Automatic annotation (TrEMBL):
GO terms for molecular function: acyltransferase activity, transferring groups other than amino-acyl groups. Residues 28-170 form the N-acetyltransferase domain. Keywords: Transferase. Pfam families: Acetyltransf_7. The keyword Transferase applies. Coiled coil: none annotated. This is Acetyltransferase (GNAT) family protein. The keyword Transferase applies. It comes from Kushneria indalinina DSM 14324. CDD domains: NAT_SF. PROSITE patterns: GNAT.
Length: 172
């Protein structure tokens, strides 16, 4: 999956309101994150997840940066690329029979156009092909649940702030 290109129908121009229209073919792929991507990854996370954190606890920049530094060191990060443009992040940690998916954030101008769905489709297809389950967690009040449920993820446990989901490989 990593580095494998995915053809997408996108316009190479962004409209006045920052929206993307779909008309020309371009490529989306993952590349391993570099140290120089650290600030970008934090900014994308803050934009995508920040409102869901702020509604419950407020946004503590210093705490969130320390947490981001910890997560950055403990798992492999990838940058979602649209041609030569960074548009998001994703972490895929191979745990043998399971892949842990996390840090899945797409920049606001690129959200709502099916890019996350297409990327998740590729992750699911590749994990099915290698007979690996996928697990993830998300904040209970984050509306991302519908995306994961559409891809066959099921809640297997929860705590007071997270739902933990699992998608069993179709080959199992």
């Amino acid at each position: 999956m990593v580095g494998r290109a995915v053809s997408l129908m996108l316009c190479s121009m962004v409209g006045a309101e920052g929206t993307i229209s779909y008309s020309e073919e371009t490529t989306m792929h993952l590349r391993p994150a570099l140290e120089s991507d650290f600030e970008f990854a934090f900014a994308v996370k803050k934009e995508a997840l920040g409102p869901h954190i702020a509604v419950r606890w407020g946004w503590d920049e210093k705490f969130q940066m320390a947490l981001h530094q910890q997560r950055w060191r403990e798992k492999p990060w990838f940058i979602v690329m649209r041609d030569d443009e960074r548009i998001g992040t994703l972490s895929l940690l191979d745990e043998g029979d399971t892949v842990r998916l996390g840090e899945f954030y797409i920049e606001g101008a690129h959200r709502g156009h099916g890019l996350g769905t297409r990327l998740l489709n590729d992750v699911v297809r590749d994990c099915d092909a290698s007979n690996q389950n996928i697990r993830l967690e998300y904040l209970k009040w984050n509306p991302v649940a519908s995306l994961y449920k559409r891809h066959g993820f099921e809640v297997v446990s929860e705590n007071e702030i997270h739902f933990f989901m699992l998608r069993t490989a179709e080959n199992r």
